[in-house]
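Please, structure for the following, as tokens.
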Amino acid sequence: MTRETIDRIIDWFAHSAIPTIDLTGGAPEMVPDFCYFIERVRTLTPKRHIIDRCNLTILLELGYEDLPQFLADHEVEIIASMPCYTPDNVNAQRGEGVFEGSIKALQLLNLLGYGTHLPLHLVYNPVGAFLPGPQDELEADYKRELKKHFGIIFNNLYTITNLPIARFASYLRHNNKLEEYMRLLIDNFNSATVSGLMCRNTMSVSWTGEVFDCDFNQMLKMNWRNGKNLLHLWDIDPAMVENREILTGNHCFGCTAGAGSSCGGAIV
């Protein structure tokens, strides 16, 4: 994301009533002006809440040594991917050595006050073609095991359902499980989740400033449009954000299955 795009996004954001800006990736920290983005948001009045969706291991990479302290100094909430509390499952899903790096990063964040006076949340998503278990039970397991074995504390665990798109859809097709998984999602549709769907209170902005209803729609290039033209954030009146028509597809059954799934975890 260029500095010009960052400035245009924040200038628009400053004139909205939106209280939270949520930075996600990949690794959003790798944007050269990541710290500039946060510093600019921090100058806004009224004060806005900032979330960094962090993959944890970036905090240990060369050139990012000062980032944990920067995030703490600017009171940035951290939501971190942690597919399991055991190394085998994490390394199988995200690569060899990722579990060990994630543990070191979490211990570092704890030393800076994350998990106590600064918010630190973890994200669980299944490693296969099944729905997440009950969020409160998984959270209790995570807290017990991470505290017992590594001395790590955190605030909340968010469970997120795997959606049948992109890399996970390829995995399902390769294993002849796509139809079965879609049937699982449809059979577990829960109408009580609809009012809490993230697309109803969040919008997704790409690195080039284009606008989508959610990150998943962004991955599928389901853009907001004005006729044939793509819409960028700075093209939109903030009043348009409320009560807009949301673009949907079969992948939306992932967010409405079981207890539901959102950027804040289970919905019901």
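The chain has a mean pLDDT of 94. The chain has two domains: 1-159, 162-268.
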